[in-house]
Amino acid sequence: MKTMTVIGSTGSIGTQALEVAQKHNISIRGLAALKNTQLLARQAVSFGVEKVCIYDETKKDELENMLSGRNITVVTGMDGLCEIACMDVDIFLNSVVGMVGLRPTFEALNAHHSSDFAVALANKETLVAGGEIIMALAAEKNIPILPVDSEHSAIFQCLRGNDPKQLSKVILTASGGPFFGRSREELSKVTVEQALAHPNWSMGRKITVDSSTLMNKGLEFIEAMRLFNVSPEQIEIVVHRESVIHSAVEYQDHSVIAQLGVPDMKIPIQYALLYPDRMDCDVRPLSLADYGKLTFSRPDLETFDCLRACIKAAKSGGVLPAAVNGANEEAVAAFLDGKIGFLQIGELVSCVCDSFDNSPADSLDTVFAADKAAREFVRSKIADI
Questions:
Q1: SS3 222
Q2: Over 80: is that where the pLDDT of 203 sits?
Q3: Is the torsion defined by CA of 9, 12, 13, 19 positive or negative?
Q4: For a surface tag, which of 97, 185, 207, 382 has the fewest beta carbons within 10 Å of its beta carbon?
């Protein structure tokens, strides 16, 4: 029986991962959530976990009361997340959203010393902001990083059994989000509700907005560089509205291998948790005949400036990806709170990308300092609006 801990257990990825764990007899030892005490308590009791973390420290007493009489330790904050990440298990699933996921991944790698342990990673920011540090540490410890994002899982699957040295390029597919084909004038009138209406995927609020600005694809661009050790020039983004081809790779002989499936996150989640095995998954089979046709086009880098900023940051390297990510997190939060318009997200991200004082990403402290500086910059700009 495999054992696992999950941070971000009450979110979309976390809840689906627990369904996979229940179906395939994976034992859960620790769980963590941001602030949803009721669901976290139900999960903890259902899976008989040893320890839970509620990141919002003000919720500790509430959670402890819900778990009263049960032998479940309650921890809080970043220290609590890292405690869950460092528990002795086979798999650590990081499915939190945002920079909060970087340090637990780092601590999990530091705490384990065996290839029998794996990190299943659904937290983009770990590799966007601290990718050089994390991938070097994983290689040193001989610990696999198993991608959970559908696109990176697809690339991972397409590379399996082939020599990565023969890889020519990665083809990263994008749904295009709800505003594919819109002009900047049309985007200037976008509401929060419209930005949260994704055509293919059911995700959390922040990630859904990122998909609508194409920031999500920009983050995935940087993530792919780190995961698969490719240059920015080896990554091609293709808008594929149907979200059936989850990504592809091209080899030196110009042969292209793609991974296809219905747009359902349970497939990549289960592949990461059961790797290298493939077993029955609770999703409907793909029928290409039912789809009839699949379409492809190039992304509009002029209209969707978040994507353009991410590609520039990827090429520049250093702490600039961390700064761009931090700027986006701050700007999206402001948009969701009604403080700025939709287009201002990209404008703020681009402003940070174009003006930030870049430096090497040689430590977590340096990365976090860049993240903090970018956030402060965005907050100051928003305050002047």
A1: helix
A2: no
A3: positive
A4: 185
